[in-house]
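In this supplementary section we document a worked example of the pipeline. Step one takes a protein sequence of length 198 as its only input; no multiple sequence alignment statistics are reported here. Step two produces a three-dimensional model, which step three serialises into structure tokens for compact storage. The input and output of this example are shown verbatim.
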Amino acid sequence: MIEIHIFAYIFFILSPSVFAGNLGNFVSDGLVPDIIPNPPPNPLTVTYQGGVQMNFGDELTQQQVFYQPIVSWASEPNALYTLIFTDPDGPSRANPTSREFVHWMVVNIPNSNVSQGDEVVGYLPSGPARGTGLHRYTYLLYKQNGRINPGTKIQSTTLAGRRPFHSNIYAQQNRMTLVAGNFYQCQWHQGDLGPPSK
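The serialised model returned by step three reads:
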């Protein structure tokens, strides 16, 4: 009986550190402090076509992330959320003069129903330019303090108005709390442009 208790105690101590190691990639890959002051407390599940999931800095291809993904999280009852998908590395991580470029943004999401929220910026897939290296494409989820005025929507086909943007400043202005996040990396490859073949 004592051995069981010891094992349970060790598991309880170790398992959070293993979990935190993934979220710690926000620090090791420089997203803290490049776009947020601290890593998110929880993971965000982002699933692309074909069941492709992002996992804290794994490299994915442009075709894998071409279509708008399914984003899920453990929501609180009656809560509203803001989802931001952003690239802090425009035109490159070494020279981020366009930090940040917003690829997708939805506010006033009830619970975890993204389709029921107000889309402020239409989804635009990753498109790193040739020779700019790896970009850290980042999903951030914030819990709102109340409803947000979505303003004029930026369509999926529109580039204007997406940069420069600052996720952390936007969150502070709207009194939001970062609750989850995840990210992948992507770079230009010949033959990896456009939608994936069916």
